[in-house]
């Protein structure tokens, strides 16, 4: 698929590091021009500089509607269109048990992971509808399909991403727009850096479930799945929730 995205534009959120950075690089290798978006402006700029002239960096606060709308407007003004959207930005929770979860943590994680994904999707859809085509790939999580892989806020947010994926897929199936989600298990990334400190009681409760999986993915392995789902090779795949977890979810 080295030239599968020539002439197309991909917007990747959370592209300053980890999975998002790997996605941006993978789409660029496949021939796309890439809008690299992250709350960390310096991280986005570093990713774009490493990719080269095919990438343009943008700062965005996923929790802020006006910031998201401005991102999409600037990306379209700069690159002409958005053919592929990778909703990858997200934050972890502290792994607290539900009774120990603060409302502040609940609202922050839901706002970034779920509402942010909705806001970017909503902002991109009108021009995808105008062009009669588009592919959206959401980054869900193992916590989006099971109850014992994270704390309550993260689990609820990623279950919400799964539901949003299916809703968008169904709503726009006749408009040339596809929406799928990938479900990563553990990945070598710096995602844990977004958490000030994990709740040891919650981590201990979750440990037996997490220990069932002995495989940790490279960000590039997750990125290649996203490239496939956005490609013409996956033209009849819509509304799919695809585990990329070395079989953890099969157990």
UniProtKB/TrEMBL annotation:
<dbReference type="InterPro" id="IPR036291">
    <property type="entry name" value="NAD(P)-bd_dom_sf"/>
</dbReference>
<keyword id="KW-0560">Oxidoreductase</keyword>
<comment type="similarity">
    <text>Belongs to the short-chain dehydrogenases/reductases (SDR) family.</text>
</comment>
<dbReference type="InterPro" id="IPR020904">
    <property type="entry name" value="Sc_DH/Rdtase_CS"/>
</dbReference>
<dbReference type="InterPro" id="IPR002347">
    <property type="entry name" value="SDR_fam"/>
</dbReference>
<dbReference type="GO" id="GO:0016491">
    <property type="term" value="F:oxidoreductase activity"/>
</dbReference>
<dbReference type="Pfam" id="PF13561">
    <property type="entry name" value="adh_short_C2"/>
</dbReference>
<protein>
    <submittedName>
        <fullName>3-ketoacyl-ACP reductase</fullName>
    </submittedName>
</protein>
């Amino acid at each position: 698929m080295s030239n599968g995205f020539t002439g197309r534009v991909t917007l990747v959120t959370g592209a300053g590091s980890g999975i998002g950075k790997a996605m941006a690089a993978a789409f660029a290798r496949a021939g796309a021009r890439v809008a690299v978006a992250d709350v960390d402006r310096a991280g986005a700029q570093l990713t774009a500089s490493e990719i080269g002239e095919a990438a343009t960096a943008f700062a965005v606060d996923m929790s802020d509607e006006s910031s998201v709308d401005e991102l999409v407007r600037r990306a379209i003004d700069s690159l002409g269109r958005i053919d592929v959207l990778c909703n990858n930005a997200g934050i972890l929770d502290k792994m607290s048990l539900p009774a120990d979860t603060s409302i502040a943590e609940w609202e922050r994680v839901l706002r970034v992971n779920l509402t942010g994904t909705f806001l970017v999707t909503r902002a991109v859809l009108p021009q995808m509808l105008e062009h009669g085509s588009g592919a959206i790939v959401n980054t869900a999580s193992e916590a989006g399909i099971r109850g014992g892989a994270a704390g309550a806020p993260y689990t609820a947010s990623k279950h919400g991403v799964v539901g949003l994926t299916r809703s968008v897929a169904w709503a726009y199936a006749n408009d040339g727009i596809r929406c799928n989600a990938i479900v990563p298990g553990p990945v070598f990334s710096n995602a844990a850096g977004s958490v000030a400190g994990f709740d040891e009681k919650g981590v201990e409760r979750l440990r037996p479930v997490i220990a069932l999986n002995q495989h940790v993915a490279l960000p590039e392995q997750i990125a290649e799945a996203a490239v496939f789902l956005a490609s013409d090779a996956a033209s009849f795949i819509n509304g799919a929730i695809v585990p990329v977890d070395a079989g953890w979810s099969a157990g």
